[in-house]
Design brief:
The structure is a single chain. 23% of the residues lie in helices and 27% in strands. By secondary structure, it is an alpha/beta fold. It folds into two domains: 205 residues, Medium-chain alcohol dehydrogenases, catalytic domain (Quinone Oxidoreductase, Chain A, domain 1, Alpha-Beta Complex); 130 residues, Rossmann fold (3-Layer(aba) Sandwich), CATH 3.40.50. Strands 3, 4, 5, 8, 9, 16 and 17 form a seven-stranded mixed sheet that branches. A hairpin with a 6-residue loop joins strand 1 and strand 2. Helix 4 packs across helix 5. The protein is globular, with a radius of gyration of 21 Å. The chain starts with 11 loop residues before the first strand and ends in a 5-residue tail after the last strand. The chain binds zinc ion (ZN) (2 copies). One zinc ion binds next to loops. The site of one zinc ion (ZN) has 5 residues, from loops.
Length: 355
């Protein structure tokens, strides 16, 4: 074979669903996929999870419209750049919340790019660090990503259920690992939704004794089925009092401000509550912290190193999200139901459906 000069790949028009403005509705739209760079992996999207962040982004948080959301992506590699060593066409690939970072600051060097001091480039509605173009997410037929931010999906994981691991999964796994949850620790998970149901499964698989906290009596059976050892109803003062000074760590996934003081009292001396839901503010009596040197903390997502570790852990323990798979044309209905918490426990779009 003669060696041909490298040809830039032709621009490809990609069909997608996009928010054209902040009205929150997604509509069929198309965009040109940028050229493949030497370090890039191009892929066709198989599944894209719908995250709560997407609801905010197609509304008040969004910056660049039209916007193609989606940062829980599982795809199949179609093409790789000349410098790519870890992927080949045909591989299953997963992409999460970021597609680039400065790669030089201390968090980046440590593989914790989600804490890049310059801010990571988000998978969608971000600005490409090379050409300044707007990044596009997984509600599209195809995507492109530097291989550093692309992950292999271990064999054996259901691909639709694996997609939410890329945001919801790693967002729970990272703090559980940071606060050293494992055998001998008692953990509470507050809120049993997209994040919380994975938090329960992961904490249980890490070896902890796990309690689900929910305000909804109708969620008790589901929480037990997910692996909770027991369930506390947060509106039941007696149940909360019975758990005083019990937990080493609490993962709070609730995104609205809710009374934390009664929940803090269930932490042991030096216990930590990590809030993942980013509520407007914390409704907590400082005395409830002082009483047992308790901490309130928060956590972002995880970096590339921990995401790879999380995917391997999930494969080892057979953990995926419980998902309801929808077609691309059902995105708006799914987004509305997600806003109403009407899903057990995550929507995933089959991006190939409707061909
Ligand atoms: Zn997300
Ligand atoms: Zn950095």
């Amino acid at each position: 074979m003669s060696s041909l000069p490298a040809q830039p790949s032709p621009l490809r028009t990609i069909s997608a669903h996009a928010a054209l403005d902040r009205d929150g509705q997604l509509e069929p739209w198309s965009f040109e996929l940028r050229d493949l760079r030497p370090g890039d992996v191009a892929y066709d999207v198989l599944y894209a999870g719908i995250c709560h962040t997407d609801l905010h982004m197609v509304g008040p948080w969004g910056r660049h419209f039209p916007m193609v959301p989606g940062h829980e992506i599982v795809g199949r590699v179609t093409e790789v750049g000349s410098a790519v060593t870890g992927f080949a066409p045909g591989d299953v690939v997963a992409v999460g919340t970021m597609v680039d970072s400065c790669r030089e600051c201390a968090p980046c060097v440590a593989g914790m790019e989600s804490y890049c001091e310059q801010g990571p480039t988000t998978t969608y509605d971000g600005l490409d660090r090379v050409d300044g173009s707007v990044t596009r997410g997984g509600f599209a037929r195809s995507g492109i990503c530097d291989e550093r931010f692309a992950h292999h999906v271990p064999d054996g994981l259901d691909l639709a259920g694996a997609a939410p691991l890329l945001c919801a999964g790693i967002t729970c796994y990272s703090p559980l690992r940071h606060w050293k949850v494992g055998p001998g620790t008692r953990v509470g998970v507050v809120g049993i939704g997209g994040l919380g149901h994975l938090g329960l499964k992961l904490a249980r698989a890490l070896g902890a004794e796990v309690t689900a906290f929910t305000s909804s009596p109708e969620k008790v059976d589901g929480a037990l089925a997910l692996g909770a050892h027991d369930v506390v109803l947060t509106r039941d003062e007696e149940q909360l009092a019975a758990k005083a000074n019990t937990y080493d760590f609490i993962l709070d996934t609730v995104s609205t401000t809710h009374p934390l003081t009664p929940i803090m009292s269930t932490l042991k001396l030096d216990g930590t509550l990590c809030s993942l839901g980013i509520p407007d503010h914390f409704d907590v009596a400082p005395m409830s912290l002082a009483m047992a040197r308790r901490s309130i903390a928060s956590s972002g997502s995880g970096g590339t190193r921990e995401t790879a570790e999380m995917l391997a852990f999930c494969a080892e323990h057979g953990i995926t999200a419980d998902v309801e798979v929808v077609k691309p044309e059902e995105i708006n209905e799914a987004m509305a139901r997600l806003a109403a918490n009407d899903v057990a426990y995550r929507f995933v779009i089959d991006m190939r459906a409707g061909d």
